[in-house]
Amino acid sequence: MSFSDLFDSEFKQRNKGHFSAIVRVALADGTIHPEEQDFLDKLAARLEISEAEYEEILSEPLKYPINPPYLHVQRLERLYDLTRMVHVDHHLEDKQEIMLRKLGIALGFTPSNVNHIIAKALSLVDKKVDGDTFVYEMQHMHK
Prior knowledge:
Layout: H1 3-26, H2 34-46, H3 51-59, H4 72-87, H5 94-106, H6 114-126, H7 131-139
């Protein structure tokens, strides 16, 4: 196996882990709503998830581990995707918010500040900010 094949394989696994985390959030209330389905379809294409992989992840989202990104900016970008998924149906259910907190910890945010981070993330997504604004505001939330 060449080095580039190894890199591609690792990149693909990370994308599957990220996608499965988002599927878990979508399924937290027991169903995938049409808006969530649209978001999943677009995200799968962006993450280069094949149709077969897509179906497998939908049927077994716990099969793939959540691989937190090394860089803080990448963690915030993933948090943005997850928060948008939770907020897409415009009403939060307890299971979805609890799942978002758990995924926040899995992404590497500490238990002591995850509630504050999730509250800020939900506030920003509620204001319909774009990804760049989200990352900037999250990076500067304590300043």
